[in-house]
């Protein structure tokens, strides 16, 4: 016999398939009463958005962000606060809560973020970068982030391109590959909280690999012009980026040596 959670989940999918957002919200509220997973609040927010209920959607995104923060998922919390601010840029609650993430134990003590069931741990976590920022630098960096929701098979970065934006994966998964003598060589699979794209920014060289979504994913982007403007205001930020990249490169090299 199917569990109550499975029965409700099936009803949710049926209502979503029919675009019956109001009924879907009712069933998702029942589901949340059984399982306090923040993603349910996110989906409730999405349903409110479909109903053009912007204020209700923003409230749900903030609620989901708060829940993620409580559970130690700083990057996922950041993404939801940014989503709330995309719909309501003047929302002081979302902005204030986002700024508090800099003092969160996950960041201040550089603790690894929890790993969701079935997922791999992040190997290129942005948390060490955040911990090296001052509060003002963190505020400036996160304030300039833009959130994108991308379908499977969507290139975020293309090998040979000259763009220098940097990115943080907050949901989903992406693969990294390069073309060698006409063949695609898989280099890595990135997980939520992974930071990427900084090499082109730091070196000024074209992108060295292609980064492409393997499932629907949320990605935070800080554009090259915003990075340059921040560095003009606070030159130390360039040093922080360099140090972060060098530490990560050293760690990767050590892991390769251990595996040989």
Describe the model.
The structure is a single chain. By secondary structure, the chain is an alpha+beta fold. The protein has a single domain (36-259), classed as Jelly Rolls, CATH 2.60.120. Helix content is 54%, strand content 16%. The chain is built from twelve helices and eight strands. The chain has helices at 4-17, 21-34, 38-50, 54-70, 74-87, 92-100, 105-108, 127-132, 135-143, 198-203, 224-233, 236-259, and strands at 146-150, 155-157, 166-171, 174-180, 183-190, 195-196, 210-213, 217-222. It has a four-stranded antiparallel β-sheet. Strand 4 and strand 5 (183-190) form a beta hairpin. Helix 2 (21-34) packs antiparallel against helix 3 (38-50), helix 4 (54-70) packs antiparallel against helix 5 (74-87) and helix 5 (74-87) packs antiparallel against helix 6 (92-100). The longest helix has 24 residues, at 236-259. It is globular, with a radius of gyration of 19 Å. The termini are far apart. Mean pLDDT is 91; it is low at 252-260.
Tell me the number of strands.
8
Distance linking N and C termini: 50 Å
CATH H level, superfamily name: Jelly Rolls
- Helix and strand element order: HHHHHHHHHEEEEEEHEEHH
